Amino acid sequence: MMGSTLLRILVSLVLSLAIAARAYKHKSLNRSGAMMGFVVMAIHIAAGYRFGVLILVFFFTSSKLTKFGQEKKRTIDEDFKEGGQRNWIQVLANSAIATVLVVILVTITGGEDRCLDTKNSALITGLTGGVIGHYACCNGDTWSSEIGMLSKGQPRLITTFKPVKKGTNGAVTIEGLLAAAAAGFVIGLAYTLVGLLTTGCAGDVAWKQLLVVPIATAMGLCGSLIDSLLGATVQFSGYCSLRKKVVSKRAPSVTKISGMNILDNNGVNAASILLTTLLTSVACLYIF
């Protein structure tokens, strides 16, 4: 047991360092983002391979989608940066809650992967469900945003269904919503496949682990909808006549589209992640 734990810690350090360095080289993360990314990834992988695969699937798929169609996104996104270049605040906004949960879990389990089973441990089931929901939300929101910006469909504000310009906070498209569900599906599938190799679930408990896939799919969509609802109501969107873009800050040249200036994009992301994490945790307690 001690040997496998030490091996996992070593793997976590080497793999996280390699991924963070590569991400910095390819401009997926800036310097501060790469440093924070290394810490967060190392914690997840050291806590359990299932948790490690969740953050890695989220990171790699979101990074690829961020770079897809960059020329078009450059004309839409006010904060566009070549390659994405997420900083430490963005990394933390998309990983802080899950990092806290996996640290609690590894403290309880000693790094042993456990099945989702409330009869054995409701606490472990609830906390693990929260981690799954966290990354289903993160992946769903990212896929939805990145694919939605490239959609040929007309974005509509989620609160009024009024047609709005691309880049408006709280706007949704059919393609974006389907992408969110697909993103959640990928998270659930990755967790389940790795779990088959790392857990000793048996009987009905083993079969029930497959329910993670539809749960994560639903939470990918749900998390994206929550993010859009918050974006449309507590995050300001306006059209700048000078930059010819939708922006998130008031100015003399900006005409309001929607939302109050209460939270910025990182705040909206963190709030939607927290709500989806709690929702998934409760769902897992009832289902498993």
TrEMBL record:
Membrane-related topology note: Multi-pass membrane protein
Key words, A-Z: Membrane, Signal, Transmembrane, Transmembrane helix
CC terms in the record's Gene Ontology section: membrane
Signal peptide: 1-23
Short name of one Pfam family: DUF92
Subcellular location: Membrane
Main location class: membrane
TM spans (from-to): 36-60, 91-111, 177-198, 210-234, 268-287
Family under the similarity heading: Belongs to the TMEM19 family.
This protein's name: Protein PGR-like
Organism: Dioscorea cayennensis subsp. rotundata
